[in-house]
């Protein structure tokens, strides 16, 4: 699926790049260029190396277990490309998004990345969305010097890849695990069962909690999202008699887990969740939503700093174009795409190694819709804060996520009213 200059109206946002990215000042030689000048005027010595049409690959789950989230995440990439294209592209060269559906599956991600690189000649890719996919394609992109920027892959194992071509604008689960552990302690839960998807993401969270609070984890379930029936696993949870359950689930299978948990009477046990549960897609099934509200499920998600100028400009543009509010990871996909565009502009050439070097430079000065995106030598963001969310029932068949606190390494856990 190819997406370039989408036929959607964008009122007055040609100036967005100049406004929203004014924070970026990058030293080049003896001179300095703002983000706007980087985009409109690539380095003269190498501008001819840029192709007439600049391709950026996008790998997202547009179908399957987490397709409901991936479809809306794609809007973030579309918006970034449109804003830049409507303001002249990179030195007059338009951005062309080339999108492939991975279904959230590692083998599909491998096939998709090969198509992008070997058929389309792509040198920069946004995605994939899941940790298992990123780990599956990491060697391939490293061997071919293709820059990869994930918007939502959080597994700690990705950091262990070291100094390579894999980057991410989302913080590592090392931080999320510390958040969940602090939340468990603050709520006074003594007997916790983990119920996680059986992949690098879920298992990483489970193992991280066992290291931080081993005396509080009384049982663990790793579930297969393809199975479709989780009564046996939930019955085992019931036998452990926990006072809280920590969930790390995918959307479609997760809704089934919640519905069956409701049927088995597990709604009287407190629930905690990973950041992937903070998406309205879970509310598309009323029984699943009712379970979430009944348990008062809480969790953390990387903060989208809504009070900032950068987020507000993103939010207004997104609503104007798509006619709805951005949902989970739309803003992170936007930032990943905008960082890729800036790196290409700063490199002044469509070559992986030079784009990689440029990305490491421009990221240090990039404050996007989701905040500071400075990347360390392992491709991880160097700082992050989290919102603490909770599901509440507003009225009949209407459910909402509300922010009830915050967490960071510097401040620790802060819950409203405590």
Radius of gyration, whole Å: 21 Å
Domains (count): 2
Strand order of the largest sheet: 10-9-11-12-13-16-17-18
CATH overall fold name of the largest domain: Rossmann fold
Strand content: 15-25%
- Give me the secondary-structure category: alpha/beta
Mean pLDDT, rounded to whole units?
A: 88
Low-confidence stretches: 1-38, 40-47
- End-to-end CA span: 49 Å
Structural summary, described in words:
This protein has 418 residues and is α/β, with parallel strands linked by helices. The protein has helices spanning 16-20, 35-40, 67-86, 106-119, 131-143, 173-187, 200-212, 231-240, 251-263, 286-295, 309-322, 330-347, 352-362; strands at residues 2-3, 25-28, 31-34, 54-60, 95-101, 124-126, 147-150, 166-168, 192-197, 217-223, 244-248, 270-273, 298-302, 367-368, 371-372, 385-395, 398-408, 412-415. The strands form 4 sheets. An 8-stranded mixed β-sheet has the order 10-9-11-12-13-16-17-18, with helices on both faces. A 6-stranded mixed β-sheet has the order 1-5-4-6-7-8. Strands 2-3 form a two-stranded antiparallel sheet. Helix 4 (106-119) runs parallel beside helix 5 (131-143) and helix 12 (330-347) crosses helix 13 (352-362). It is globular. 54% of the residues are buried.
């Amino acid at each position: 699926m190819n997406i370039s200059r989408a036929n959607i109206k964008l009122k007055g946002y040609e100036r967005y790049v100049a406004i929203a990215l004014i924070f970026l000042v990058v030293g080049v030689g003896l001179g300095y260029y703002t983000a706007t000048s980087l985009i409109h005027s690539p380095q003269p010595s190498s501008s001819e190396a840029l192709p007439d049409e600049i391709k950026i690959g996008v790998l997202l789950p547009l179908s399957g277990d987490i397709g409901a989230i991936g479809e809306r995440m794609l809007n973030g990439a579309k918006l970034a490309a449109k804003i830049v294209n409507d303001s002249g592209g990179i030195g007059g060269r338009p951005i062309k998004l080339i999108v492939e559906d991975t279904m959230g599956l590692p083998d599909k991600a491998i096939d998709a990345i090969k198509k992008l690189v070997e058929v389309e000649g792509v040198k920069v890719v946004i995605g994939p969305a899941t940790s298992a996919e990123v780990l599956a394609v990491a060697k391939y992109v490293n061997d071919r010097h293709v820059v990869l920027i994930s918007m939502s892959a959080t597994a700690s194992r990705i950091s262990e890849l070291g100094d390579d071509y894999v980057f991410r604008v989302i913080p590592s689960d090392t931080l999320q695990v510390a958040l969940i552990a602090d939340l468990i302690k603050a709520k006074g839960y003594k007997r916790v069962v983990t119920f996680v998807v059986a992949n690098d993401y879920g298992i990483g969270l489970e193992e991280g909690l066992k290291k931080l609070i081993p005396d509080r984890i009384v049982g663990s379930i790793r579930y297969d999202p393809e199975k479709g029936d989780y009564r046996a696993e939930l019955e085992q949870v019931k036998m452990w008699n926990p006072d809280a359950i920590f969930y790390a689930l995918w959307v479609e299978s997760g809704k089934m887990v919640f519905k069956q948990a409701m049927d088995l009477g597990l709604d009287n046990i407190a629930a905690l969740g990973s950041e992937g549960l903070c998406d309205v897609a879970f509310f598309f099934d009323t029984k699943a939503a009712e379970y979430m509200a009944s348990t008062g499920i809480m969790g953390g998600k990387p903060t989208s700093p809504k009070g900032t100028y950068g987020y507000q400009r993103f939010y207004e543009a997104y609503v104007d174009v798509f006619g709805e509010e951005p949902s989970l990871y739309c803003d992170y996909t936007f930032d990943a795409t905008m960082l890729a565009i800036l790196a290409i502009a700063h490199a002044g050439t469509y070559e992986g190694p030079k784009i990689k070097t440029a990305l490491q430079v421009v990221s240090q000065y990039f404050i996007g819709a989701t905040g500071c995106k400075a990347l360390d030598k392992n491709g991880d963001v160097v700082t992050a804060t989290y919102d603490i969310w909770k599901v509440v029932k507003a009225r009949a068949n209407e459910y909402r996520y509300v922010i009830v606190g915050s967490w960071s390494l510097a401040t620790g856990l802060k819950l409203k009213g405590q």
